[in-house]
Amino acid sequence: MQNVVHYLKTIPLLQGLPPAAIEALALQVLPHHLDEGDILFRKGASGSSVYMVRSGWVKIVTENASGGELVLNHCGPGEVVGEMALIDREPRSAGVVALGAVDVLELTRDTFLEVLSHQPILALDVMRNFSARLRFATTYIEKAIEWSHRIAEGDYHFAIEQIQSETGIVDRNKADEVRAVELLAAFFNMVEGVRNREETLKQQLRELSIEIDESKRREAFEEVAQSPFFKDLKSSVQKMRQRDSGEEK
Amino acid sequence: MSRIISIHSFRGGTGKSNISANLAALLAIEGRRVGVVDTDIQSPGLHVLFGLDEKQMKLTLNEYLRGECAIEEVAYTLGNGAKHAPGRGKLFDRDIWVIPSSINAGEISAILRHGYDVNRLNEGLQRVRKQLALDYLIIDTHPGLNDETLLSIAFSDVLIVVLRLDQQDFQGTAVAVDIARSLDVPELMLVVNQALSRYDFQQVQQQVTETYNAPVAAVLPLTEDLVELQSSDIFALRSPEHPWSIALRHIATRLLESA
């Protein structure tokens, strides 16, 4: 029990709560154990609980365009998954799968709302938390738009420099910023990929070399030009052209 | 005065017949009186593009060259058969005449064995220009530089040499260019056909222009759609918005402007 209380105190979202509220909450959370590959919840599922990872790691997954698994993020001890469902009641935006043995604590929406009624400060913390993430996401969306424009214009150098300087200032201890690093890395790979393809293409373009063997060319020309037929032809064409130009005058 | 335009290439398979037929069609669509002659007697193919029925082609350039008929008798207008194809159907009421070669194997080998009087070819071409009051006479030549091809080149106002981006074509084109210059052909143009999309067409145009010191009228892309059509219609009229057709129209415009 004390372990649970101790653990809950480490969760940033709950840090505004007085110790008594944390202790009350510790009685309400439900422990779950997952083994490797177990699914905590699927993308699109309905569900209104939030889960706090006590030990082990989970991956947050969605599907890419061709139906393959796309890993969005990894979450470990102290991190919270599924928190959006506390607020909006929408289906899960991504799925969560255990990467080995994992212990989580489930906090249901009802419990959360009950705590909220006694501890309005929690609402403020939740809002502050979401607001910070929104701000963070918006900033990166804006940057991503600008980078995309630069890449579309072929200004890879600028894009790569920007991405590298952004990566340098990200705080890797913060989960959101780790996500930002992943976004940056994805952009970086894209720019590198596009630039490399363009370089390869340019390389191939340079492959068109027109080589003409001048001695063979002269030989082939002479063979035709020396024939009696060609000589006749040439003189009759000259006469024809003189006649034509005479007519025009 | 009508203009004679010869379409030539060093080797077969460059798309020469397709370019000849499509250029003739584009000029006819512009209201010009156009004749198009298949002098590729060894492997004729022009009539297929215009949908001429082989059974109806009783007389061809071959019979004329052997002195068996007059040249006017072998200049065919597009019959009812042309109506049904979406491309050449547009030519139905236009002034275009096709002078085909015989596809009869015996005919072909007879020509190959005995040859023919190239002067008769010349007389015929001059006569058909006057008789039909042609604005343009387009000659689809035989690949290489045999006598009838030299004759066509010699009497041309414009020579268009078609080449692909390959070494043999580069070499052969150089010789054709030298021959054309030696014969004082008034206008020489190069057309690159079947260019792969991985090339930068502008760069290709510049490179080829510099190599031969002659203008490149168009760089035409390698086109699966054109191959798929299997010469059963006039592509530039059937798919006018296709990049190949658009590029070919540049050549037609150039010919119309330089007239």
Q: Any overview of this molecule?
A:
- The complex is a heterodimer of chains A (249) and B (259).
- Chain A is an alpha+beta fold and 249 residues long.
- Chain A has helices at 2-9, 19-28, 85-88, 109-118, 120-152, 156-169, 175-206, 214-225, 228-248; strands spanning 30-34, 39-41, 50-55, 58-63, 69-75, 80-81, 95-98, 102-107.
- In chain A, the strands form two sheets. Chain A has a four-stranded antiparallel sheet with strand order 1-8-3-6. In chain A, strands 2-7-4-5 form a four-stranded antiparallel sheet.
- The mean pLDDT of chain B is 89.
- The termini of chain B are close together.
- In chain B, strand 6 (187-195), helix 8 (201-212) and strand 7 form a beta-alpha-beta unit.
- At the A-B interface, helix 7, helix 8 and helix 9 of A face helix 6, helix 7 and helix 8 of B.
Largest interface: A-B, 23 and 26 residues
Question: What is the CATH class designation of the largest domain in chain A?
Answer: Mainly Beta
Beta-strand residue percentage of chain B: 15-25%
Number of strands of chain A: 8
The strand line-up of the biggest sheet of chain A is 1-8-3-6
Briefly note the structural class of the backbone of chain A. alpha+beta
CATH architecture of the largest domain in chain A: Sandwich
Beta-strand percentage range of chain A: 15-25%
The overall number of domains of chain B is 1
C-alpha termini separation of chain B: 10 Å
